[in-house]
Amino acid sequence: MPDSSSPVAATGALDVTLHVNGTTHALRLDPRATLLDTLRETLHLTGSKKGCDHGQCGACTVHLDGRRVNACLTLAAVADGCQVTTIEGLGSPEALHPMQAAFVAHDGYQCGYCTAGQIMSATALVNEPCGPHDDEVRELMSGNICRCGAYSNIVAAIQDVRGKR
Q1: How many domains does the chain divide into?
Q2: N or C end: fewer C-beta atoms under 10 angstroms in the chain?
Q3: pTM listed for this prediction
Q4: Are residues 56 and 76 in the same domain?
Q5: Could you tell me the CA-to-CA distances from 162 to 7, 23, 165 in Å, in that order?
Q6: What is the signed CA dihedral for 13, 19, 24, 28, rounded to 10 degrees?
Q7: Measuring CA to CA, which residue among 162, 161, 56, 33 is closest to residue 117?
Q8: φ, ψ for residue 112 (rounded to 5)?
């Protein structure tokens, strides 16, 4: 049980420091706040989407210290002191990240709702052990759902960046 003089006991809130896209944010958050809700509602970074809110679709994928995570399943307090990268921090319209450029070149998006999560997952995949074949890429991307069915274009974009095409 927290000490009655602690900030948590007094307000129920936690002091959390998030390093998001190179900017440090000192926040006071409900301990139940997810990283996704904090990014979208507190920091107004709306690129990561709330799809299923159960960790099944991948639309909320961000990088936490370089590893891909579902932000809807990650408590913001767990990310305290960590480096968080969202789609907004990956590239810009003037200087696209190579994966963003590949998604454009290969038409790896349709409605665009899942695109940010797909790109964030794909950029992490490039640094993970993955065999050279499309099936291996599909397996590592299986946590990201595209309801429009742009899977072959997404795989082509990833393979292009990986130098496998």
Answers
A1: 2
A2: N
A3: 0.90
A4: yes
A5: 47, 29, 8
A6: 0
A7: 56
A8: 90, -10
> What is the rounded distance in angstroms from the CA atom of residue 13 to the CA atom of residue 33?
10
DSSP state at residue 45: -
Tokens describing residue 90? 């990956």
Query: What are the tens digits of pLDDT across the range 106-134?
Result: 999 888 899 999 999 999 999 999 999 99
The C-alpha angle with vertex 79 and arms to 33 and 117, in degrees rounded to 5, equals 80
For 11, 34, 50, 56, 62, the CA distances from 31, given in Å and listed in that order, are 11, 8, 19, 23, 20
Tokens describing residue 137:
């890429």
Give the confidence band of 164 by pLDDT, cuts at 50, 70, 90.
confident
Do 79 and 111 fall into the same domain? no
For residue 47, the one-letter residue type is G
Residues spanned by the domain of 117: 98-164
What backbone phi and psi angles, to 5 degrees, belong to 4?
Answer: -65, -15
